[in-house]
Amino acid sequence: MNYTSPTHYLFLLSFLLLSNALFGQFLSLKSKTSIAKVELLEGKEKGYFHHLDSTSIYLASSKAVLRQGNDLLQLPILSINKLQLKKKGATGRGALIGMVAGGLSGLVRGNGIGRKDDCTPIIKTILLGGFTIAFETTPSPCGPAERGKIGATGGVLIGAILGSIIGSTKRKFIIGGQKSKVREQEEKIKSYEY
Across-strand partners of 80? Predict the structure, then answer.
């Protein structure tokens, strides 16, 4: 295996860049924090979503307040028009899952496309000013290993992009100041609780 090929360096560089970019996201994977943006009938509020009860939604202004559970901002359901929730770190998790899935599928596909007989030299001829010049080349990429690396590199990049797009989705709940709409969506909203 040739470890000095450009495809090997490209694969390694893409993996290092993506893993370094996502490292900060993975530091917050242990916590179950969700960011909440609340559109009230009059005004807006933003904070960390703590919990929902039968009458109100509770937000924390900081992570310390969220962990302690004291000094929570209470927003009555009757005053809420829309609630938007996003799990913190979901973008990083989505990118990681996309990187792994894309890299593995690209590796398998690249290995499947490559054949050992791909590396047979090809003789090419060029007619140049009445002279025929013949030279021998090897097709690039040649063999399953190199095509597998190229497939994995492309899969990692595409998988990370798609995974981060999918992971960064926000969930919107339209409440319109009605308790009945909260009851209909209560299970989904409670899945974002701290």
Answer: 40
- Between 12 and 181, the more confident residue is 181
Give the residue from 193, 184, 187, 186 showing the smallest Cα distance to 36. 193
Are 50 and 66 in contact by the 8 Å Cβ rule? The answer is yes
Average pLDDT over residues 155-180: 83
Cis check for the bond before 141: say yes or no (omega within 30 of 0).
yes
What separation, in Å, do the N-terminal and C-terminal C-alpha atoms of the chain show? 49
Query: How many C-beta atoms surround the C-beta of residue 148 within 10 A?
Result: 22
58-76 per-position pLDDT tens digit: 888 888 888 888 888 888 8
> What stretches of the chain adopt beta strand conformation (E)?
34-40, 44-52, 56-60, 73-76, 80-87, 122-128, 131-137, 171-174
Q: 147, 114 in Cβ contact below 8 A?
A: yes
pLDDT for 4 equals 55
Cα(5)–Cα(126) distance, integer angstroms:
27
Q: How far is CA 15 from CA 8, 28, 111, 150, in A?
A: 11, 20, 19, 13
pLDDT band at 177 (very low <50, low <70, confident <90, very high): confident
DSSP label of 72: P
Distance from the Cα of residue 173 to its chain's centroid: 23
Three-state DSSP state, 140: coil
Instruction: Classify the C-alpha dihedral 94-96-97-98 as positive or negative.
Output: positive
